[in-house]
Description:
The structure holds 3 protein chains of 3 kinds.
Chain A: H1 2-18, E1 33-36, E2 45-50, E3 58-65, E4 73-79, E5 101-106, E6 124-132, E7 135-138, E8 142-144, E9 159-162, E10 171-176, E11 184-191, E12 199-205, E13 227-232, E14 234-235, E15 238-239, E16 257-265, E17 268-271, E18 275-277, H2 289-310, H3 320-335, E19 339-342, H4 351-370, E20 374-378, H5 381-397, E21 409-411, H6 416-430, E22 434-438, H7 444-454, E23 458-463, H8 469-475, E24 478-481, H9 484-493, H10 496-531
Parallel strand pairs in A: 19-20, 19-22, 20-21, 22-23, 23-24
Antiparallel strand pairs in A: 1-2, 2-5, 3-4, 3-6, 6-7, 6-8, 9-10, 10-13, 11-12, 11-16, 14-15, 16-17, 16-18
Helix pairs in contact in A: 2-10, 3-4, 4-5, 4-9, 6-7, 9-10
Chain B: H1 2-9, H2 13-29, H3 41-52, E1 58-64, H4 70-86, E2 90-95, H5 101-115, E3 123-128, H6 133-141, H7 143-146, E4 173-178, H8 184-195, E5 199-203, H9 208-217, E6 222-225, H10 226-237, H11 242-277
Parallel strand pairs in B: 1-2, 1-4, 2-3, 4-5, 5-6
Chain C: H1 2-23, H2 29-66, H3 72-91, H4 105-136, H5 142-157, H6 160-169, E1 174-175, E2 178-179, H7 182-217
Antiparallel strand pairs in C: 1-2
Helix pairs in contact in C: 2-3, 5-7
Amino acid sequence: MRIAAVPLTVLLATAALGQEAAPPVPEAPKKFAVVDFPFDGGGALAATWEKMPYDDRVSYVILSAPAKEGPWTACLTVKGTEGWKSEAGLPPGGWGGEKDVHYAKITKLADAGMAPVVEDGRETWFRIRATLDDKVLESEPVAATSSKNPPLAAVAEVKFEDFTSDNGSAVAATWRAGPDDEKTTYYVLVAASENGPWAVAESTPGGENFMPDAGLPFWLWGRDKDVHFLKITKSPLGPLQPNEDPATHTRAPTPDWWFRLVAESGGSRWESAPVKLRPEWNVFDWAKLNKFFYMIGFAAVCLVVIRIARGRHLFIRRIPGLDAVDEAVGRATEMGKPIYYLTGRNSMTDVSTVAATLILGEIAKKVATYDTQIKVPHTDAIVMAVCQEITREAYITAGRPDAFREDSNFFVTDDQFGYTAAVDGMMVREKPAACFYMGYYYAEALLLAETGASTGAIQVAGTDADHQLPFFVTACDYTLIGEELYAAGAYLSREPVLVGTLRAQDVGKAVILAGLLILTVVATIAQWVSASETDPKKAWSWQEVWIFDLVRGN
Amino acid sequence: MRELFEKLLKMDRRWIFLLVGIALMVPILKPLKLPGLKASTPVQDLYTYIEGLPEGSKVLISFDFDPASKPELEPMGAAIVRHCMRKKLKVVAMTLWVTGASLAQRVVESEATAAGAKYGEDYVYLGWKPGNVAVITGMREDIHVVFPKDSKQTDLSKIPMMQDIRRLRDFDLAFSFAAGSPGLDTWIAYGADKEKVKMGGGSTAVNVPSMAVFVQSGQLVGFIGALRGAAEYELLMNFSGTATRGMDGIALGSYLVAALIILANIGYWLTRKPKGVA
Amino acid sequence: MLFAKRQLPLIICFVVGVVTALQDFVPTNFSQKVSIWLSDWYIIAAMFASLLGFGSVALVHSGRIRRQMKGWGYSVLVFVGVVAMFAVGVISGGKEVSDSGSPTPLTWMYVYAMVPLQATMFSLLGFYVASAAFRSFRAKSLESTLLLAAALIVLIGNVPFSNYLWSAKMGLTEWQGIKIGMPDIVGWVMSTPNVAARRGVAFGVALGAIATALKIIFGIERAYLGGGD
C-alpha cells in the first residue's frame, strides 16, 4: 500500500506545479457602508466599500430604495478602477484616507416615486451591485440618513508643548475635556509646514487618555482628570526626531513641526489653529529628581557615618559564617589539604563579585599566615587577574611573599557547566579541607556545594543570588545571606572606615522601613476611601496618591 | 528499627541517585498519563492575553537560555511561538545568550514552517548580539541600530515586517524565556518597565520563586513556570508536546523526594530520642 | 609607577563611576551613547582578558603534562578539545548552515557535543536536589520545621496529580469560604511568605550593593586593586 501511495503523491504534486494560480472567485462587494457625508451642510451621503481583486473588470452600480424591500433603482455608476476614499477631499481625521477603499458621494437619487435629491432626515436604503462579465453580485441593503452638520463647539485650553525630561523625541498635547466627550474622537494632526499636508499623528476616543496617564510625577505634571493628554512621538513620515543612521551613527537635526487638534463628533468637526513646535532634548531628567536626591542623600549619609566611625568603635553583630573562616583555615593546615575559594559566576561589574574578591584578600592573609594552600578556579579572566593581585598582596601583607604561588588563581572556562564539571572533579580528586562559595551563582550552586559536601569539606557560602540561597543553606555549613556578603570584608578586616559603611546601610534601611510603613498605611487608607466612592469617574487607586511619586521609579 | 533507620540515614547518596533515575525513567518508558493537569492562573492569564491580541500584533520573543535548560524551556517557547503563529501575530525572535542562538532559531523555524508562516513577513529571527543590558537599552532607542542585519545577514531595512518595528515600544507584547541572567528580570527592569511594554515570560523551576515577585506585582501579564507551566500551556493549546509527556516523571520524582524527606525525618527523630533522654 | 598602579586606577574608577551614575539622569542621546561606549569598552577589555584566561589554562595544563602529574592525559584532552573546536569553526567559516543549506560541522559539534554535555550537567541538579534534601531537611527546630513543611507543600502541591486526589477525589476545594485547593495553597506559600522574604533580602542586597559601589567609587575600598591602602 505504501509503495503505491508514493507515485500518487508525486503525481498530484507534479500536477499542482503545472497549474497557474487560480483566478479569484468573484464575491459580492465587501464592507459596503453608506453614511452621512461629514462636515457639510446636509443633502449628501457617502458610500464606501472594499477594493475587490477583480476591480479592473467590474463596474459598480449603487441602487437606492425608499424601503428595505424596494423598489430598487440605480442612482450612481462607478468604474472598478475609480472613486477612492482618499479622493473625497475631506480633511484628515476620522474619515481616513485609504487609497484602496472605494468611495462615492451620493447627492441625487433615482426617481421611481422618490425625491430626486438626498433629503436631510429621511431614511433611504442602499445596496451595491457589481457586474463582472456575465455575473451580477449584490451586497446586503444598508440604511442611511443625511443631516446638516453644524460646526462643533471649540475645545478649550488646547496646548502643544515639548515633552518634558526626554531626549527630544516627543511633544505633549493637552486640552480640556468637552461636555460631549462620550461621542467625540480627538485627532492630533501633524505637518512639516503650516500649509500641510496634514496627517493624523495620534488619536484618542473622548473618554480616554488624561493627564495622569502621562506617568510623570506630581512635581512635573498635573493630575487633572478633566484634561486630555496625548504623547506624540511620530508623524506618518517617521519619528519626530529623525532616526540615527546606522552607517554614520549620526542623526539629522530635528525639524520644526506643525500641530493642530481636531475634534470630531458625528459629522461635525472643530479644528484648532496650527502651532509650530520642535521637540527639544533636556539636560536633566526631572522625573528622576527623587532618585537623584536619594542617591546624593545616601552617599552623604555613608560619608558622614564613615567620618564618625573613624574615631569610634562600632558594634557589628556576629556572623557565624565568617567566624568559621579561622576554623576552616586551621583545619586545612592540620589536614594538609587545600582550601577552595570560588568567586561566583559573574564578572567584575557585579558588586557581589567585588565583595567576593575583598573577602578573598582577608582569607588569603590567613592562609599565608598558616602556610596552607588556597586554590581559586575562575570563570572570568578579568576577575582572575584582579584576584591574582589581591592574593599576591595578601601574602606580602602577611609577610610571606615567598609562599605565594602564581598558579593559585587559574582560569578554567567561561562555560557555566564546563566550569562546574571541572571544579567538581578537582574537589572529588583533592578532597579539600574547606570550600568557600562567595559571589553570584546560578544553577551550578547546588552542583558545587553538594559535591563539596560529599567530600567532607567545611563549607561556607555567601551570595546575594536569592534564588540560590536555599541550595547553599541546604548543602553548606554556613551561609552568608544577601547583604552579609557585602559586610564580610568589613567584618573580617574590622577597618573602621568599612565598618562605618555598614552603619550607613543600617541608617538607609531604617529610612526605607519607616517609608514602607507610612506608604503601606497611606495605600490602605486610599484603597478604603476609593472603594467607598460610588461615582466611577471619581474613584481612584492608591497609585494616584501623589506621595507614591516619591518612590515610584521612572 | 533504629538500626535500620541509622543505616538509612547514612546511606550512600548514589542509592538516592539510582532511585531518582528510576523514578524519572519509568514514565518515559511507560507513560502513566496521570490526570489532574489544569492551567494555573499565570499561565491562563498569558494565554488569554495572547488570545485577545488582534491579528498582526507585534510580539518580541527572546530565548534567553542555553542547551543546559533546553529540555525545560524549549517546550514553552515552542508553545508560545505556535500560539502566535496560530493567531497570525508578527513574531520577532532573538536571544541574549550566545550558546542559545541555534536553539532559538530551530524552535522558531520549525514552528513557523509547520504553520506555513513566511520569513520576513510573519516572523524574523534577529539572532544574538553581545552586550546583555546594552542590547535591551539599545533596542529601546532603535532596533535597526542594534541589529542592522538579521541572522540571515539581510538588512533589517529590507525586511517588510521590520518597517513598522523600530523601537521596543512598537511591540504589543514581549517575552523572555530565561534560564538566568540576562533574562526575564533584565527585560523587565531595563526594557518593559521603562517603555511600558507588556511583558510575559517563563523560567526554569529554580527561578520560579524569584519570578513570583513580578507576577504578584503585575509586571508580567502572565508567566509560565518550568515544564509544568509549559504542559499547562500545551493543554490550553490543545496539543500534547514534550512538556506534557514529562509531567509523569516530575510527579514521580517529586513524590520520591517528598518520601525521602519524610523518611529521613522519621529516622532523625527515632535515632535522636535516646540522645534527648541522656 | 606607583601612580599608575594606585592613583590612576582610582581616578579612572571615580570618573567612570560618577559619569555612569549621572548618565542615568541625563536623557539626551549623547548620554545614552556614553553608556553604550562604556559597555563597548568593557566588552573589548573582556576580549583581551579572555586571552589572559586562555594563557592561564595553557600554563596550568602544559605544566601538568610536563610534570606528568596524575591525570595528565585529561590535560592533553583540553588542548585537543580547544584545537578541534577552533579548527571546526574555521572549516565551517563560522557559519551554522552551509551555503548549500546543510548543517556545518560546527552545528554538528554544537548539537551532538555541547547540547547533551550541558543538558547532562544541568540535569544532575535533579539528583543532587534529592540527595541534599534527604541529607539536610530536618525538623530540628520550629524554624526548620516550618521550612520543611513549606518545602513538602510546594513539592507535592506542584504535581497536578496531587491536586486531582486532593480536590477531585477528596473534595477539598473550599473551607468556610477560603479556597483550599492545592494550587491555592501552593500559590499562597509562593506569593506571600516567599515574596515577603525575598523582598526583605532584596532591600538589604540593594542597599549593600549601593554602599559597596560608593566605597569603590570614592576609593574608600581599594582592596580590589590588590592589598589595602
